[in-house]
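Hypothesis: this fold can be encoded by more than one sequence.
Test: take the structure tokens below, design a sequence, compare later.
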């Protein structure tokens, strides 16, 4: 019984789609799949519903034979024939998507490579024994790395497969005819290729291309891990980085292969925004354009203008530049990457939608034209009948209608391709002439660091400096701008990719000059951490800090891409995130796009989001080692721990460079212990949790530290426990705390941790604040504490004023608010809702505890003083100012102080 008879009897659906194949295709499949019983066996696994057809890994594979077996090889090719027939039919079904088809094709290729590798290895081992590692003494296996469409899981119906062969250790085989491991695996690789690639009476399985291996054709077919790593470290070229974006271990020793891929990742993805890749990408793009023009590939839907390759280039260019920092961009599948480009605001959503739509259409066309004659081609057919078949298979009535839609897709793709990595007409066109360098620039050029630059770095510096000088000369204060930017340029000399960022992005260079000229604080931050330059690329996001919810989601997503055991990388991500977000706030502050209260809100949100994720990281690590602590009722703590923010953090009033006043509280069973393999008592577990949090926050790294942390407000101060129970905290506050500790409690709130425990803390705080107090005694203690602080911290020179500590400064307002809160909370418990001065002053006004005019004057003074503080912080000007500055506001504060505190 012939194959087509079987297929037609098997399913009316299949018969319908077989009718769309060409006569030549039917004949080829008929010849290749001559063994009707085998065909019946393979086809019978599926039902009429195409969506229910299983993947190739669940269908019968050819059985392994010992030695050379022509029938085994024939069965392998017949297997491929039936798979091809099945997948062509699947591809034509409207219920099966293109990504499903390409994924199945790739799974089938993996299965074919695996079965051929097993056969090839067995044949070589019969002659030479097992290849053994010289260091480990363990048997070695070949690692097969799939490149290109195979690596990306995106094979088409007639793709060849690009492979690289490697093995973990050098050594020798243990047989009587012993050979080196390299010789052994070269033999295995040669046999594997023959089993798949050789054309027999039954056809072939896959064409195999090995040209992507180190040194290409003529080099050894297989190399050890060490040899591969050495090659890419010393000789790897940009196009090889580009190719390795899609590399995947598809067969062989997959565990060893993953170790190899991890070791090669730094070659592919730099741990910073890799603007140094621009030049090579520009050259690749120009080569693509030249090739299209030279070879007249208008009818080639892959290589022609607006074809598949241009879509791939757009996605992979962003991957190469940004994948080291944004690890989500390290995905291999193009249809995973394209949506991320819109999500990350690297391309407009409309552009990404057009590219995705075009990619689906072009890949469907590719499959239709390859299914015509089982040929590896991307050329549109010229034969009239073939054209009609393709048009019909794509859902069009005729070729003209199909061509119009195809032309529209290709035009859109080519326009986006032209917009990515824009070509330069000439260096002279965008490099202004400089008659004589300013002295500071010449000093940089003559510096040892600049003189030691290699050819690439030196060339980039020569290109950047004229652009930089031109931008500075156009600034209102050119000498100041240049003086503040040059330290940043000097700091980036050894990482010249940052120089390329500024060369390639004139708007970003202009923003660097403007922001550095406006704020030495920003200039110094950029010079210490050039990685922050990436924030300057997009003006729309730079001057619009995100909400707390968006911040939290962004940071969670970034940390989720890092292995949980890679603490150093997690710490780097946290630091870069925090500094980048603070830079955005500072830029918005200088630009005037956010009012003062929103500036403080944004800075506080950043700290809260960071604290929440630091707690999560530390909690997961400790639980993995020691298990979870328990509550008194025996339930597991999740986490049974809160971080309480005091001071500016608690009051939602953080400034630039503020430290964080924190208190740690838990509600675990004090007599219990954790439930892990290495249990700890509850107190020790939470103490370690607190220590780890402080360590993650304060450790100095190349990316700096997160925040300075002050724990002195915990019960009993520096001599007290690092983490206390809620009961212990409440008992201390009720029985032992000083008045100034109750003042501090006014501005306390939970900023991260267990929601149920946070609610319990809020109730305990309200009970403590609402305790009746003697107003006169309270007033005396507050005034005495304020006098002591002023004595020690305010300037002695009456002409010099400290924003915080001088008469009428911020601390006077804060102490006034704290006194009023403690004195009146028992009768006005609504006071306990708020930890921030502005809303507390509004509450005092609405409850008639302060006259409206007085409360408003205090609010105005508070805003003015804090705004001045932010400006001086960005100017690195400290907290002091001239006596006449904000004199009216400070006098209003002093007047209220006298009225309220000296009754």
């Amino acid at each position: 019984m012939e194959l087509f008879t079987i297929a037609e009897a098997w399913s009316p659906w299949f018969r319908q789609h077989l009718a769309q194949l060409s006569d030549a295709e039917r004949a080829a499949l008929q010849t290749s799949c001559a063994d009707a019983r085998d065909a019946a066996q393979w086809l019978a696994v599926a039902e009429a519903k195409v969506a229910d057809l299983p993947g190739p890994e669940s269908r019968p594979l050819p059985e392994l034979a010992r030695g050379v077996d022509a029938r085994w090889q024939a069965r392998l090719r017949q297997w491929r024939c039936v798979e091809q027939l099945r997948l062509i039919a699947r591809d034509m079904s409207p219920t099966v998507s293109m990504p499903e088809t390409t994924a199945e094709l790739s799974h089938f290729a993996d299965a074919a490579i695996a079965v051929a590798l097993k056969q090839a290895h067995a044949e070589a081992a019969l002659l030479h024994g097992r290849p053994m590692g010289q260091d480990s003494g363990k048997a070695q296996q070949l690692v097969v790395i799939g490149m290109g469409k195979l690596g990306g899981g995106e094979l088409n119906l007639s793709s060849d497969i690009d492979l690289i062969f490697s093995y973990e250790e050098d050594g020798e085989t243990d047989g009587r005819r012993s050979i080196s491991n390299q010789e052994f695996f070269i033999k295995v690789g040669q046999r594997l290729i023959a089993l798949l690639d050789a054309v027999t009476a039954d056809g072939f399985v896959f064409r195999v291309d090995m040209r992507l291996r180190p040194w290409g054709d003529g080099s050894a077919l297989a190399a050890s891990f060490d040899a591969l790593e050495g090659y890419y470290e010393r000789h790897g070229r940009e196009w090889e980085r580009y190719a390795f974006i899609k590399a995947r271990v598809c067969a062989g020793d997959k565990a060893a292969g993953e170790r190899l891929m991890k070791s090669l990742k730094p070659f592919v993805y730099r741990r910073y925004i890799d603007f140094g890749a621009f030049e090579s990408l520009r050259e690749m793009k120009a080569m693509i354009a030249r090739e299209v023009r030279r070879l007249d590939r208008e009818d080639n839907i892959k290589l022609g203008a607006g074809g598949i390759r241009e879509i791939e280039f757009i996605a992979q260019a962003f991957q190469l530049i940004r994948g080291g920092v944004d690890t989500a961009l390290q995905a291999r599948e193009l249809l995973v990457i394209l949506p991320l480009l819109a999500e990350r605001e690297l391309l407009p959503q409309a552009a990404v939608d057009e590219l995705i739509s075009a990619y689906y259409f072009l890949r469907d066309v590719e499959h239709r034209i390859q299914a015509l004659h089982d040929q590896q081609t991307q050329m549109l057919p010229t034969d009239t009948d073939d054209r009609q078949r393709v048009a019909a298979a794509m859902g069009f009535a005729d070729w003209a209608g199909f061509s119009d839609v195809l032309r529209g897709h290709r035009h859109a793709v080519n326009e986006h391709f032209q917009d990515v990595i824009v070509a330069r007409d000439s260096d002279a066109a965008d490099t202004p002439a400089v008659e004589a360098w300013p002295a500071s620039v010449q000093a940089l050029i003559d510096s040892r660091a600049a003189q030691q630059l290699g050819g690439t770095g030196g060339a980039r510096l020569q290109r950047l400096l004229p652009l930089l000088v031109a931008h500075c000369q156009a600034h209102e204060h050119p000498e100041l701008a240049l003086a503040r930017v040059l330290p940043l340029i000097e700091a980036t000399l050894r990482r010249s990719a940052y120089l390329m960022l500024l060369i390639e992005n004139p708007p970003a260079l202009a923003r660097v000059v403007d922001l550095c000229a406006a704020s030495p604080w920003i200039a110094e931050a950029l010079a210490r951490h050039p990685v922050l330059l990436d924030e300057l690329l997009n003006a729309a996001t730079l001057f619009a800090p995100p909400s707390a919810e968006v911040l939290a989601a962004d940071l969670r997503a970034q940390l989720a891409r890092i292995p949980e055991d890679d603490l150093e990388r997690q710490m780097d991500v946290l630091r870069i995130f925090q500094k980048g977000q603070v830079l955005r706030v500072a830029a918005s502050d200088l630009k005037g796009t956010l009012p003062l209260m929103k500036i403080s809100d944004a800075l506080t949100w950043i700290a809260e989001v960071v604290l929440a994720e630091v707690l999560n990281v530390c909690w997961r690590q400790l639980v993995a080692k020691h298990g979870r602590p328990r509550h008194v009722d025996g339930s597991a703590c999740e986490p049974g721990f809160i971080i309480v923010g005091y001071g500016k953090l608690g009051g939602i009033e953080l400034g630039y460079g503020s430290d964080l006043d924190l208190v740690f509280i838990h509600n675990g069973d004090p007599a219990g212990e954790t439930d892990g393999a290495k249990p700890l008592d509850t107190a020790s577990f939470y103490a370690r949790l607190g220590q780890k949090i402080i360590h993650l926050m304060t450790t100095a790294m190349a990316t700096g530290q997160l925040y300075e942390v002050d724990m002195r407000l915990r019960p009993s101060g520096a001599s007290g426990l690092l983490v206390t129970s809620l009961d212990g905290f409440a008992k201390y506050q009720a029985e032992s705390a000083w008045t100034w500790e109750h003042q501090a409690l006014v501005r306390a709130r939970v900023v991260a941790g267990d929601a149920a425990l946070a609610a319990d803390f809020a109730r305990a705080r309200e009970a403590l604040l609402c305790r009746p107090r003697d107003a006169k005694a309270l007033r005396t203690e507050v005034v005495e504490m304020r006098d002591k602080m002023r004595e020690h911290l305010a300037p002695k020179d009456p002409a010099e004023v400290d924003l915080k500590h001088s008469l009428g400064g911020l601390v006077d307002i804060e102490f006034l608010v704290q006194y009023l809160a403690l004195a009146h909370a028992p009768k006005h418990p609504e006071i306990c809702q708020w930890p921030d001065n502005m809303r507390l002053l509004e509450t005092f006004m609405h409850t008639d505890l302060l006259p409206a005019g007085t409360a408003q004057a205090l609010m105005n003074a508070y805003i003015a003083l804090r705004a001045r503080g932010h400006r001086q912080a960005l100017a690195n000007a400290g907290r002091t100012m001239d006596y006449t500055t904000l004199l009216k506001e400070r006098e209003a504060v002093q007047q209220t102080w006298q009225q309220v505190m000296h009754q």
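The CA atoms of residues 180 and 536 lie 54 Å apart. Residues 98-128 form the longest helix (31 residues).
Hypothesis status: open.
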